[in-house]
Amino acid sequence: MSVWIDILLATLSVALAVRCLTAPTLAQCVFLFFAFGLTLALAWARLGAVDVAIAEAAIGAGFLGVLLIDALRDFAPAKEATVEDAEGYAAGGSAAEGSAAGVPLRAGRAALPLLPLAIAAVVFVLLTAEAVLNVRDGGGLTELAQENLARSGVDHPVTAVLLNYRSYDTWLEVGVVLIALLAIFAVGNGGTFARRDHVTHDPVLEPVSRILAPVLFLIGGFLLFLGKYEPGGAFQAAVLWGAMGILLYLAGWPVMTCLPRVWWQVLLTAGFGVFMLLGLAFMSGGGAWFEYPLAHAGNLILLIETLAALSIAAALTAIFAFFHEMHAPDATETPEK
Amino acid sequence: MNAMETYQIYLTASAVLFTTGLAGVFMARHFFRRIVATKIMGAGVFLSLVSFAERDALEFADPVPHAMVITGIVVAVSAAAFALALARRIHQLTGEHDFTTDS
User: Torsion over CA of A166, A167, A168 and A172, rounded to 10 degrees?
Assistant: First the structure.
């Protein structure tokens, strides 16, 4: 019985991925991508990876989906239609705005090289069968992780791996988020945000943000603390706090300008910086890089997680706000090619 | 039906997802679709890692691939956000949404 659930989920995720890539409009592509991400989250929950499921649903589908939707404003649907025309979707000029014309005639697809595709498909099926059926039993690192759990300062194995055994990865990951933010600032026009001194009274978003923002903050903090015992932790908390920031920003609160620039810089680098300083401190104390003293491991991990979550949340909010303001009003008048 | 274990089902799906994404990267023209296609490829890789974690489960599933995947998701999303920023900037400056026209 349960096997059928897995087969259904696996089939659904593949089908959604295919539909997502062949969707006639970009908007459909984004929403199918949302659905794909959530299906994948279910699959991961089935595989016993609840942490991964939360992270995927929140960051992979949620945050990226929001960025994609925001990008839709630039890649307007009318322009997409002209491109699809060239690609062989036989959409008439007037069909661009008609949603009923969503059934593309895939005349161009018939020109695909069928023989190479068929050979590739056969090779792929054989390789997959070989890989799935005859993969060697490596045993994995489960045993090792379980043995050392008592010495890690936390009770949840995934958190132990993330913040104790392999804290190096996590440290650099916080750095990657920071670099991504800087790179996005560099690509766009500067890193400044328009000052919004007063709240715009959006009749829906404003009351919703008043109710949801504290709830999001509390659930984020709860997940952060829960990471010690159960699925949860810094990234999941960071995304919830980032969602809070994005919601407040969209509701018109002056999120990006309420703090002086220096404070934002401190907030953004706190996770990476403190993590690194702690690592250096342990090294100067004679230990290895990120070798926590046994007695304080739990508290140190909680401290690092809190700062990392704050930094990542700030970075996510800043990335979204920057994306949002990237859409210049005159961008719609870009020259047609 | 018990001949096939749970991890094998998802492992097969992960291979198909990776290939689907790869095909999408090559066949799609629009920046936007290519970014989504690379995300689907990445999802395939993550799914295979988590499948192996489930195979090696004792009391709990192997936590090391789980941690790698959580890290990977955040890094992949950061990279995708950067790619999206680049695509939007190119579009704003030139009005292009693909690489079909040589300059």
Answer: 120
Q: Over the stretch B3-25, which tens digit does the pLDDT of each residue have?
A: 567 888 888 888 889 888 888 88
Q: Dihedrals φ, ψ of A89, to 5°?
A: -75, 115
> What is the reported pLDDT for A14?
92
3-state class percentages of chain A: helix first, strand second, coil last, to nearest 5: 75, 0, 25
Lowest mean pLDDT among A11-25, A89-103, A175-189: A89-103
| Contact between chains at A29 and B87 (C-beta distance less than 8 A) | no
Task: Give the total residue count for chain A.
Answer: 337
CA-CA-CA-CA torsion sign (A280, A281, A284, A287): negative
Mean pLDDT, to the nearest integer, of A8-13? 92
Is residue B79 domain-resident?
Answer: yes
Band of the pLDDT at A77, cuts 50, 70, 90?
low
Q: Is the pLDDT of residue A231 over 90?
A: no
B20 occurs within a structural domain? yes
Nearest to A131 by CA among B44, B94, B37, B96: B44
The CATH number of whichever domain residue B49 belongs to comes to 1.10.287.3510
pTM for this entry: 0.81
Instruction: Identify the three-state secondary structure at position A54.
Output: helix
Report whether A138 contacts B56 (CB < 8 A).
Answer: yes
Q: How far is the alpha carbon of B77 from chain A, nearest alpha carbon, in Å?
A: 6
What pLDDT sits at residue A62? 87
Q: Cβ contact (<8 Å) for B36 and A20?
A: yes
- B67 vs A166: CB contact, 8 Å cut-off? yes
Boundaries of domain holding B38: 6-94
Q: In this structure, what token pair is assigned to residue B50?
A: 């988590």
Tell me the residues of chain B between 12 and 31 that have a Cβ less than 8 Å away from chain A: 12-13, 15-17, 19-21, 23-24, 27-31
CB atoms within 10 A of CB A225: 16
Domain count, chain B: 1
* Mean pLDDT across A270-279: 86
* pLDDT given at position B50: 87
pLDDT band of residue A190 (cuts 50, 70, 90) is low
Question: Which residue among B4, B16, B21 sits closest to A3, beta carbon to beta carbon?
Answer: B4
A140: left (phi over 0), alpha (psi -120 to 50) or beta: left
